[in-house]
Every structure is written in structure tokens, then in C-alpha cells.
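Standup notes
- DV: blocked on the single-chain target, sequence here:
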Amino acid sequence: MLQIKIAAGVIVVLLFLGGLFFVVRLSEVTISKIEVIGTSVADASLIQRIVEEEISGSYGLVIPKRNTLFVPNSDIARAITGTFPIVKGAKVSHTSLTSISVTVSERTPVALWCAQGTEEISSTCYFADETGFIYMVADSADAYVRYSGRIESEPVGSSFLSGKFPALHAFVAETAKTLGRTADAVFVEPNSDVALSFVGGGELKFVMTEDATSTLENIASVFASQKLKGRTDFEYADFRFGNKVYVKFKE
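- DV (later): unblocked, structure below
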């Protein structure tokens, strides 16, 4: 009697697995169409190819990843962002039982990161987004502030200043606005000393700290003084030494 029950149980399991194997492969529940939305710079056809690779194969040789109920959405998103630095995020949506759409959001450049001591924009400067993430070689330098400083590895895929970039970038913009100048380039040294140069000449030197408001107020106060008010012919103004400010004018 026990052997009969065991045999019956095995048969039931085999029938279930066989039925499952058949059902999950029905064309009515198999992804056959992939649409990529939101690309402007990234190659949509290459993203589609990555999706195809991610939904190939199966789980445990039984359930195909192409089945509409078992599409590996998170794996697809990670594969896309890991392959294309310009892609900030990817979201997989089911538009029907046989089709999915992948909506990607691309990074927007706010600045450039440039290799120190070089001049060719096309080969040595890279676009960086609002977080300081460096994602592609720049094809234009127009309207962007150029940052330079130490990057430990390959620029593309690295983050400049590890979380401190947004505050510095905002400070640079506010400082330029306060002085009525246009920021041109920013060099950050390993010890957090910063040199900010302007279009038309002139350079500010300061230390990058968490108290950016105090530094900005100090700069605004000095340039509002009788000695500097309205003058644009300074060679540099050095704010790195506390209350002592050193200013050199062009000869």
C-alpha cells in the first residue's frame, strides 16, 4: 500500500511538472516583443539586445525567463545601467502578455571633468551629471564649467569628489553670480584647496568645507569693499587663510 502511494505521488508530481513545462511555454504567455523608450544618446538596439540576453534561458531548466510572469525585471535594469553609464535608470513594464517596454532615463550633463594639463576637449574632457558621475567623453565644452582633480580609476563610471560635487557645483554657480562673473574652470587639490577661474581672467582660491555659506559671505563681503568694488582686474584673491585675504591685481 505504501509503495502504491509513493508511486502515485511521483506520478502526480511528474504530471504537474510536465503540465507546468508545457503551460509556461505557451506563445500566449511568452514575451515576443520588446520596446525601448526614452533613448536620446544611448543605442536603443543595443539595449534591446541586452534585454534579449537577460530573458534567454530558464530557471532550473523548467521555467523560461521569457515567460511573462517570470521576466527578471531587476536583472534587466541592472544589466542596462551597468553597460551604459549614460543610463541613470531603467524600468521594465508589461504592455501585454507577450510584450514589454523598457523605459530608460539618461543622465543630463551639468559640467565637465577634464584630465589635468590637457587641452583637447574631445579626448580629455567628459560629461558629468548633477551628482558628479562621469559618464561619457564630451563632444562640446560650450556653457559648461570645467572641473579637474584626482580620479583614482578610469573616468567613465567614476564619481568626482564622492558625494561632495553637488555642493561645490552649487557654490561655484552662486559665487560667480555674486561677483557678476562667468565661471570657467575649477581645480580641486587632494587637500581640498580649490582654484576657481573666470572667463576673462581672475582666480579665487579657497578651501572646500561644509560651511560653504560662510565662505560665500566672506567672498561677497571682500568684493563689496571699497578696494575691490567694481574692479575686475584682479589676478587672484586667496581666501584660504581664515580672516586674512590676499589679493593681487594685474599689472
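- Follow-up: The chain has two domains: 26-106, 111-249.
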